Amino acid sequence: MPQIALDTEAGQLSAELARRGVAPTTRVHVVVDLPEAAEPPMAALAQAGRAFDWLAEEPDLYSDADLLPKL
Fold first, then answer.
1. 64: in domain
2. What distance in Å separates the CA atoms of residue 69 and residue 66, rounded to the nearest whole number?
3. Helix (H) or strand (E) holding 42
4. Which domain, by its residues, includes 31?
5. What is the pLDDT along the chain (71 residues), one digit of tens a residue?
6. 68 in a domain, yes or no?
7. Are 33 and 39 in contact (CB under 8 A)?
8. Is residue 22 in some structural domain?
């Protein structure tokens, strides 16, 4: 399987592949390395992954009334 290493912005990926002669209908496998400064916060990753969506249907087990009063 031929490989091409690109160092380009995400929005320029299609143009860079076309410039290198890769047909638009070609299936590609993409590995993305994000610079440390551009890492999304963990909450954004969890929300985008939708792994915790089921919690919206779960009843709340605790409320503010369960807090202990300050002494």
1. no
2. 9
3. helix 42-49
4. 1-54
5. 778 888 888 899 999 999 999 999 999 988 887 766 666 678 888 888 888 899 889 988 888 888 888 87
6. no
7. no
8. yes
Contacting residues for 26 by C-beta, under 8 A, at least 6 apart: 17
The model carries a pTM of 0.45
Q: What are 7's two structure tokens?
A: 């160092």
Our count of domains for the chain comes to 1
Distance, CA of 34 to CA of 10 (rounded, Å): 11
Determine the Cα angle at 37 with ends 35 and 38, to 5°.
Answer: 70
**Which residue in the block uniquely carries the two structure tokens 């299609």?**
14
Quick check: 17 and 9 in contact, CB under 8 A? no
